[in-house]
Design brief:
nucleotide-binding, 10% strand, ATP-binding cassette, subfamily B, 6-stranded mixed β-sheet, 4-stranded antiparallel β-sheet, transport, 10 strands, ABC transporter transmembrane region fold, binds adenosine-5'-diphosphate, alpha/beta
Length: 589
Amino acid sequence: MRRFKAWFQKITLGHPGHSAKLCLWMFLDNYVSAIPYAIMVIAVFLLFRPIIIPGAPIPTTGLLILCGALAVQAVIYYFVARKSYMISCAGFAEVVRKARMAMGEQLRRLPMGFYNRRDAGDLTTVLLRDYETVESNNDTLMPKVAVIAARMSMALIVLTVFDWRMTLATLVVIPLSIPFAVVAYRRLNRKNTDLLNAQQDNTARILEYVGGIQTLKAFNQTDEMYRSLRASCDALRQRSIAMEKASAPVGMLARAVLNAGTAVVMGFGVWLMLNGSLAPLTLVVFLLLALNLYNPIMSFMMMLVNITRLNHCTDRINEVMSETPLPYAEGAGKPSGAAICFKNVSFGYGNKEVLHNISLDIPQHSLTALVGPSGSGKSTITRLIARFWDAGSGSITIGGVPVTCLSPDDVLSDVSMVFQDVYLFHDTIEANIRMGREGATREEVIQAAKLAACHDFINALPNGYDTMVGEGGSTLSGGEKQRISIARALLKNAPIVLLDEATASLDPENEVLIQQAIDALVQNKTVIVIAHRLRSVQNADQIIVLNEGHVQQAGTHSELLAADGLYKKLWDEQQKAGSWRLRQTVANI
Ligand code: ADP
């Protein structure tokens, strides 16, 4: 019983009350609505008696009682049906809505390490298909189970009233069908898991295909050539067929066993009748009602596939919900200022360490540049500051407080980030900027947009600040998206700014505008900039040179040039590349 309770709790997403109430009312509804049939059977029995037993009186009193019972049933049915209709209309949608919101919040709180393990298709499937399955099954499957229970119990009561021995004979084949149901459940469970995994993979492949459509077009890849999507569609087809095949034979065997029950009823009934202990009319009633008892059992077996699906989907939802967000030890107080300090920090995304024993001092209101070859660990350092991940060893402090003593939300409220890849949501421009600070007024949004040099282009859009942005910001140019993301950061006005050098791949006009926006953003802030072009950070207070996860050098531009190390090498290479580009341009002219 305890196990059933836990299971019920699980499949109702922790809200068993709603489904239990729905089941109860559907049970009552069906029970009450089945009463006229039972009354009819009894009435037919009473009416046939004088025909079969000559001389027996017509049971007028009994028939009148049945009429009264029908009238009472009609009144009760009205109230019960009304209530069960109201409850079924309310549906499980509200529970699922709340559960989806809770999942959204959980996903926001989870560390980025979680996203390294799960891909977008996987999570999309949880949020769309799994919740959908839970909702539809709680709305339809549960009431169906209640209906089956009502019909069976009603049939049992009526049959027992007629003859308990025959009722037992009717029931005798039911245990025989249980092993088939168990085998069916196991097989279906296995095949269903395969099918659901194939569906999930297919979603991932479709997302990948749509997301990468530009690249596919650019390289003239037709869908014929997009093998992984094709393979995934083929796998999905095969698994669907396997699922169908798995359910059919077991279901047929179970039906055969149950049908054999009718033979048992008939054989046993005839034997009792020949012995003179069963009236022929009673036998007729049993023969007519036995199938009524078996049909709900068959329907239940048909539902096994939905039950396994419901089980699987709730398991997947619970798996995500039981992931633990980054822990933090409260009580260390608030950061005093925005100085950042790394002490002997090592970190790896998985088993492979990518930062080795890093120590850094980033004073408040200073500009620090992180430079170094690609893959040297620059972005990883900024992710650790924002607490997207926690360091494997060593400590990171903000304003003297270890980040592990601050909630991820608190850390992020102190940090503004501007990435090269800007993501804009499918919403108005105003809402996209307001993401920087919820509750900011329209004037504040416009002020931030002006400082970020985007006010003019926004005003030139058809609906100004109310213009909808395509998903991922697809209707705006790279430079425009970048400036909107800077406006967001300006609105947030956090004391620490992490900047993945945003101007690296932009045209000169955009570069000037974005540089203006960045200048506005970084005033009186602790700024850490990932610099791809060393020329842009010559004036930084300190430049940290990273190589293969180690701090190789640190100092000002002139100190590092004088030191003749990696920085000087990178600088010389960039100077050479710059003059080569210049020569090419001149030659082209
Ligand atoms: P940089 O910013 O200097 O180019 P990164 O900090 O992005 O370097 O990467 C440092 C190392 O960590 C690289 O070897 C990279 O492949 C690895 N890395 C970066 N992000 C991830 C991730 N999400 N999962 C696993 N490895 C990663």
